[in-house]
């Protein structure tokens, strides 16, 4: 049986690795001492918004704080925050098998290149996790929204496809992952809005003023991507360029037409909101920051995304995190 290592066993890492382990795959989770202590005491509980639930007792878990634990792995999933990508690659480069396959299941657009610069003897592929994972309690990881995993196509993935199928996390293989990554990033522009609202995702997205902020951020990004000639994948029932118009509809009409977009666990929140709660640095520089880099490359401006980035950085320093939709909309639109 191929060995699988998950490097960066936080919410996404523990959920993916836990689902694989619960289905019988040989998995080692590699993460921080805090998580090791929690799982050693609590075990690992997994659940999703459709009713899936599983528990792995501590004696069924392989968890290590040592990057060397990945040395025997045939497949390595990288699930660290984007800001830790280079340090993750440095930690792994002397341990991994030369023929190991590495998948970056991370936000942002530049992690693949960073990993490939260091892990030159391995095959490094880009992937995408479309769903939200929250932590209702220590050791419990809950998938709060829908979606299948995407990975760029490679014949080297063939031995691992049955593992993901058995875990209920089938891999959707695509020849060009970049349109998928950009489409996901457009959806993830809501992470900052959700973090600044302090509300559950479903509540926030049910309110038109917050959606209008997201629509404005997406329109800026879409204009830049059109100018660049970048194709976008379709990850929702609605074509990606149409989403801002859908978001701006009145609440009652939006609920009727976008029921799948609101198929979210009522308590699910963005990972950015969780990061602010925990006092951790967020991934805002790899979400709104990617749009600002795109704007700079084209000598253009993206004022809505720039202001959202500034507000999240302020929140990291203890600034406001209870913005009403109306106040946030007024704040970002006055910068245009």
Beta-strand content: 15-25%
CATH class of the largest domain: Alpha Beta
Please provide the ordered H/E string of secondary-structure elements. Answer: EHEHEEEEHEHEEEEHEHHHHHHHHHH
Note the overall shape: globular
Q: What's the Cα radius of gyration?
A: 19 Å
Instruction: Specify the CATH architecture of the largest domain.
Output: 3-Layer(aba) Sandwich
CATH topology name of the largest domain: Rossmann fold
Strand order of the largest sheet: 5-2-1-6-7-8-11-12
CATH superfamily of the largest domain: NAD(P)-binding Rossmann-like Domain
Give your account of this protein's structure.
The protein has 336 residues and is of the alpha/beta class. It has two domains: 3-175, Rossmann fold (3-Layer(aba) Sandwich); 180-333, N-(1-d-carboxylethyl)-l-norvaline Dehydrogenase, domain 2 (Orthogonal Bundle), CATH 1.10.1040. 42% of the residues lie in helices and 15% in strands. The chain is built from 15 helices and twelve strands. The protein has helices at residues 11-22, 33-42, 85-92, 111-118, 161-166, 178-188, 190-197, 201-205, 208-228, 243-247, 251-257, 271-278, 288-297, 303-316, 325-333; strands at residues 3-7, 26-30, 44-48, 53-56, 63-64, 75-78, 101-104, 123-128, 133-137, 140-143, 149-152, 171-174. The protein is globular.
Quick recap:
This protein has 336 residues and is an alpha/beta fold.
Describe the secondary structure blueprint for this structure.
Layout: E1 3-7, H1 11-22, E2 26-30, H2 33-42, E3 44-48, E4 53-56, E5 63-64, E6 75-78, H3 85-92, E7 101-104, H4 111-118, E8 123-128, E9 133-137, E10 140-143, E11 149-152, H5 161-166, E12 171-174, H6 178-188, H7 190-197, H8 201-205, H9 208-228, H10 243-247, H11 251-257, H12 271-278, H13 288-297, H14 303-316, H15 325-333
Parallel strand pairs: 1-2, 1-6, 2-5, 3-10, 6-7, 7-8, 11-12
Antiparallel strand pairs: 3-4, 8-11, 9-10
């Amino acid at each position: 049986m191929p060995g699988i290592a998950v490097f960066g066993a936080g919410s996404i890492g523990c959920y993916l690795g836990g689902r694989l382990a619960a289905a019988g795959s040989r998995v080692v989770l590699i993460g921080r001492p805090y998580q090791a202590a929690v799982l050693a005491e609590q075990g690992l509980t997994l659940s999703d918004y459709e009713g899936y639930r599983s528990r792995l007792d501590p004696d069924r878990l392989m968890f290590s704080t040592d990057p060397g634990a990945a040395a025997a792995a045939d497949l390595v999933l990288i699930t660290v925050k984007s800001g830790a990508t280079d340090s993750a690659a440095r930690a792994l480069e002397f341990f991994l098998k030369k023929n190991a396959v590495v998948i970056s299941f991370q936000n942002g657009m530049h992690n693949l290149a960073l990993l490939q610069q260091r892990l030159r003897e391995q095959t490094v592929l880009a992937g995408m996790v479309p769903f939200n994972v929250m932590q209702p309690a220590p050791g419990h990881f809950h998938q709060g929204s829908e979606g299948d995993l995407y990975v760029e196509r490679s014949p080297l993935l063939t031995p691992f496809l049955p593992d993901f199928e058995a875990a209920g996390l089938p891999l959707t293989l695509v020849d060009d992952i970049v349109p998928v990554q950009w489409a996901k990033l457009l959806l993830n522009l809501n992470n900052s809005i959700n973090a600044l609202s302090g509300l559950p995702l479903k509540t926030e997205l049910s309110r038109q003023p917050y959606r209008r902020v997201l629509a404005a951020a997406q329109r800026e990004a879409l204009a830049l991507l059109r100018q660049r000639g970048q194709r976008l994948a379709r990850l929702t029932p609605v074509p990606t360029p149409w989403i801002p118009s859908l978001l701006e509809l009145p609440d009652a009409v939006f609920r009727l037409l976008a029921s799948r977009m609101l198929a979210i666990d009522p308590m699910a929140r963005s990972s950015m909101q969780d990061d602010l709660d925990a006092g951790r640095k967020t991934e805002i520089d790899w979400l709104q920051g990617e749009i600002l880099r795109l704007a700079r490359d084209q000598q253009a401006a993206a004022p809505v995304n720039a202001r959202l980035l500034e507000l999240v950085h302020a929140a990291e320093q203890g600034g406001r995190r209870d913005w009403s939709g109306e106040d946030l909309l007024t704040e970002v639109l006055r910068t245009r």
